[in-house]
Specification:
Elements (H helix, E strand, L loop, with lengths): L19 E2 L32 E9 L5 E10 L2 H4 L6 E9 L3 E10 L5 E12 L10 E2 L5 E4 L8 E4 L5 H5 E2 L5 E6 L7 E3 L5 E6 L8 E6 L11 E15 L3 E12 L3 H21 L17
Antiparallel strand pairs: 1-6, 2-3, 3-4, 4-5, 5-16, 6-15, 7-10, 7-12, 8-9, 8-11, 11-14, 12-13, 13-16, 14-15
Length: 301
Amino acid sequence: RRWRGASFKKHAPLDGGNPICFPQFGRGGERPGSVHKAYPKMPADGIASQMEWRLSESGKYVADDGTSCPFVVLETTDDDASRAVFPHAFKLSMEISLEYTSLKIKTTVYNTGPNMFEYALGYKAHVAVTDTKEGDVYYVGLNDCVVLDNEAHPTKPRVRFTADLDPLEERCFQLQGKTDKVYLNTEDLGTGVEVGTGCTLYAQNVSGEDGCVDRAVFSPWDSSPNTYRWYAGLGIGNFGKLRIAKPDSRASTEIRYHVVDTTPSIRIREDAAAYLKVSALNSLARPKFDLSGSELPTDLQ
C-alpha cells in the first residue's frame, strides 16, 4: 500500500508499500538490524529503498499448478550517494513473481568490492486492513521466540521471551498503540496478520535456516493519524544477526507473501475464553471432603 503524498523522487524515503531494508533495518543505535556504529550516517531502514532501480528482465513462467505467472527482475548498484554513507561496492537484485495467492521476492546481494561488509536485509510490508483500531485485525504465529521491544526504552530494546507474556498475547494480539517490535527466530510459514475480511496474509521464509528468520511488527499509531488505522506493519528479514558479505561473493534469500482464506485467531480466542471460564469455575468450587458416617459430627449422623 502506498500513501498519498509519498515522494517518488530519487533518494527520497518510502512511506508505504513493501520497501526493501538494506544494509540496515530500523532506526539504528543498539536496536536489532543496526549497522549504525560502523556507519553513523546510515538512515533508518538503510539506503536501498532510496536508490534508483532499473528493470533488467521480465517475462512469464509456469507455476506448480500449471498457471502462467509474470515476473520482473530489478537491479541497483552502489553510487556516489550510497557510498557517502556505506563505503562499499555492491549490487542488489530482486526477482519479483506473482502467483494466484502469493507474491514471491528473491533477493540477491553481491559484494563487488575488495572488502567484507555486514548487513541486515528485510522488507517492511504495509498491509492494507479494515481498521487496526476497531476492526478484527490480529497478528498470529509470533510465539515461542524472543521479542525485542524498541518502544519500551529510548536507546535500546527491552528483551523478553514470548513464553513470559500473557498466554493469549503469545498466540495472537492486536495493536494497542505505537509499536516497534522485532521477533527473532520465528516460524518459517505461520507468521502473519489477519486483515479483517476473513483472510490472513502470511509472511513466509522459504530459504530455510539461512533465510529471513526474523519478523517485525510496527505502527506509528497517533503520530501518523491519517494513515495508521488502515495498515498493519509486518516486517520479514534478518535483523537479530547481521549477514556477512565476503569479497566477490553473492547470497540469495527468498520470501513469500501468501494469502489464505482463514482467521486462526478465532479459534485461539475461543480456546482462551474457555480456559478462563474453567479456571474461574475451579476457583469458585467448594472443597469436598470424603468422610465416613462415624467421622461426622453426632448431630449429622
